Structure prediction request, 247 residues.
Amino acid sequence: MLFSVFFSTVLLASLTAANPAAESEHNTPTSTHNGLSARQGNLEHRAAPIATPTVVVTLDTHQQNVGILSSTDMYAKVLSGLNQLCPKGKIHCNRRSDVVQFNGIAWNNTNNWETNGHLTLGVQSATFPKDFTALRDAMVDTVARSWQFQIEEATNCVELKLNGDRSGKFCNVANRIEVRVAESQATDAHLHAYIYFNFNLGAEAGGKFSCVASKAGALKAIMDTKQPYLEPLKTSDVAAEVVCRNQ
Prediction:
C-alpha cells in the first residue's frame, strides 16, 4: 500500500503545481505544495533505480473527439476497457494489436446527427510492478479519470445544434495519456493508452482541446476518487511532473 500512497500524493502535488494562466501547453513550473516537491524530470533517461518515487503524467496535445459521450460514460468505458486489455495480475501488457471498441456513440457528421460512431481504446504498452495491485489500480484509474474530467472541462466542448433540431455537447480529449512511475522497486511502471473515433477523426467543428485546462481539472479527479487505494495524503519528498507533449 506504500506505493499507492506515493502515487496519489505525487500526482496531487504535480497537478496542484500547474497554473493554467501562467504556463504554456508544454511546461510545468517548479513549485512546492505542503512540503511536496514538484519538478520537471527526465524519467525516460534514468538508468538506475531511484529511492524517491517519481511520477510523470503525459497528456498528448493531439485532440480526439468523442462525440456526445458523457464524462461518466467515458470513465466507465475506459476503466472497463483497460481492465479487459490489461487484467489484474499481468505484469506486462503490450497489446498493440488488441483494442476494445464501444459502439453506438452519437456524433456530428457534417451537421447531421449520427448514432453509428465507434470509440476505440487501445494500450500502446504497460508494465505494472509485481504484487503491487494497488499501484496498478491507481494507474488505470488515473488514466480513466483524466479522460473523464477532460469532457467536463468546458474549454474542450462545444454545444452544437444539428439538422433536425437535434443538439448536444460535443467534446474533445487528448488522443493519448501516459502515466509513468519510478521508484526503487518499480522502476518502469507505466501505462500508455490511446483512443480514436472511427468517424469524423480529429476535433469537432467549433471546439478545441486545452491541455493546460485539462491538467487543472485533474486535481478534482484525484480528490473526488473513492477508490480504496487512496489513503489519507501524507507529506513526503516526491518528484512529480504533469506535461503536455506531442506523442
